[in-house]
Amino acid sequence: MSKVVRSSKYRHVFGQQAKKEECYQNLKVTKSAWDSNYIAANTKYFGVIWEAGGGGSFAVIPHENQGKTSINTPLFAGHKSAVLDIAFHPFNENLVASVSEDCNVMIWGIPENGPTATITEPLQTLQGHKRKVGTCSFNPVANNVLATSSGDFAVKTWDVEAGSVLNSLDQGHTDIIVSVEWNANGSQMVSTCKDKKVRLFDPRSNTITAEAACHLGIKNTRGIFLRDTILTTGFSKTSEREFKIYDPRNFTDPLTTTSIDSASGLLMPFFDADNSILYLAGKGDGNIRYYEMVSEAPYFHYLSEFKTASPQRGICFIPKRACNVSECEIARALKVTPSTVEPISFRVPRKSDIFQDDLYPDTYAGEPVLTSQAWASGSNAEPKTCSMAPGFVKKAVVQEFKPVAQVQTGPKTEKELRDEYEKLKTRVAYLESEIVKKDAKIKELETK
User: Fold this and answer.
1) pTM of the prediction?
2) pLDDT tens digits for 343-368?
3) Do 375 and 145 meet the contact criterion of CB atoms below 8 Å apart?
4) Residue 138 belongs to what H/E stretch?
5) Which domain holds residue 247?
6) What distance in Å separates the CA atoms of residue 366 and residue 141, rounded to the nearest whole number?
């Protein structure tokens, strides 16, 4: 009996790692145990969380600065504790957000062509979380809207330009939130939590719309939106790595549960909506699996696996707009090791020099559709798209960022509190002495 092979234009997609001289070397990647990707990227730069003592910092490096980096790499160093996550503004290539164990969220301006000296003053500091802030993610449709999650079990959305909280979901999560992701049009979010549940909610409301038990293992989980479904990765009771797919309309039971292997590293999921390809990269693994996702059972089809000998600590994918269409590159990942960032190109093997329009449907344009106020008031809109055909010139849109200065709250560290206490004590003693002088002067005037 002949075996029918499923037809797919992505069946022969292969990954190709960059040559050594095309990688970024001599980096000091953080050794933090927090489960973030440690890296983020846009079309001009990538950012890596840096290993630093006495505070928190990260580096932003232009894509063209390949090879060995300087030992005096300029950093963004304004946090008083370790940086846990970073995210680039989707509509302004020169803005990046960072969150930290110091409970603060900071918005930074990136000088054109990258920083040449360490930057310690952010454009905006957002304060409101009461515990360490673990994740940050910009809305893909609404301008200047950032979502953050914290150890205080809250998910806050901010207008980063105004420096104000748009909304705060303080109820619903019962343990530390480990991942929060937007859907394609920025109207909903999915979160996973250490209480082993996945939750779906509109961050503009104060309620969870749906929740379900996901992975029963004790290790961390991740959750992302596919198109019309939600995918989570985690561990089973027997410590096997697995992923589950849920229908948001019926969150009670997953549509499918698939075991991967028994390795110990968290599976980091990334979904390419243009090509319906899911990439799964395990922390500590040297491989990246990829699947073609479909809307009917079995909901996915295994494609292949990219393998290397070096294990990855984190990974991210650059926006599709930066891919090389002349070489049929459909995705490019940046893989983090303890001292390097290695680009990995995923390509479809085709010989024709003609633009392959079936591989490159119109993609996310990186242009805002809604203002932060319109989004906060309940408006929804689909993201803008643009062509990737050669000769198409994307309209240059410069998103101005005019931060509103915020009044800083009081000190938070023990040393700062003690210093502030001593200053206040000295100030009180001075004022008391002035009162005594005034009383003496009043008595002297009364006797005349």
Assistant:
1) 0.87
2) 999 999 988 788 899 999 999 999 99
3) yes
4) strand 133-138
5) 14-386
6) 8
